[in-house]
Amino acid sequence: MIGEFDSGGRIPGAPHSPFVGADQVAITLVHTLSGAGATFTVLDVNRQPGVVVELHDRVMAVISIETDGETVHVIRAVGNPDKLLHLNR
After folding, report:
1. Which of 10-19, 47-56, 62-71 has the lowest mean pLDDT?
2. Which spans in 10-89 are helix H?
């Protein structure tokens, strides 16, 4: 499994390059998203399962999960504020 996070270099501590392996992806997601009081809404993102992460009524990240229906292959997350601006107007 591969995890990718696009922060646009604007989120301190965000991964700068793809990370590989189910354990590393899970650890990174939990470390990045837990404990902040965020809400998670499950919905389709680009015709794949996904999650919208909101904090204080603002979209903080959009996560898409690339799967064949049985195995998760890639998790992509966008947290770049510039790319999420249209969702926060």
Report:
1. 10-19
2. 22-33, 81-84
Given a cut of 90, whether residue 2 has pLDDT beyond it is no
What Rg value do the Cα atoms of the chain yield, rounded? 13
Using a 10 angstrom Cβ sphere, with 0-12 exposed, 13-18 middle and 19 or more buried, the burial of residue 63 is: buried
> Which domains, ranges and CATH numbers included, belong to the chain?
2-87 (3.10.450)
Mean pLDDT of the chain: 83
DSSP annotation of 76: E
Q: Are 36 and 54 contacting, i.e. CB atoms less than 8 angstroms apart?
A: no
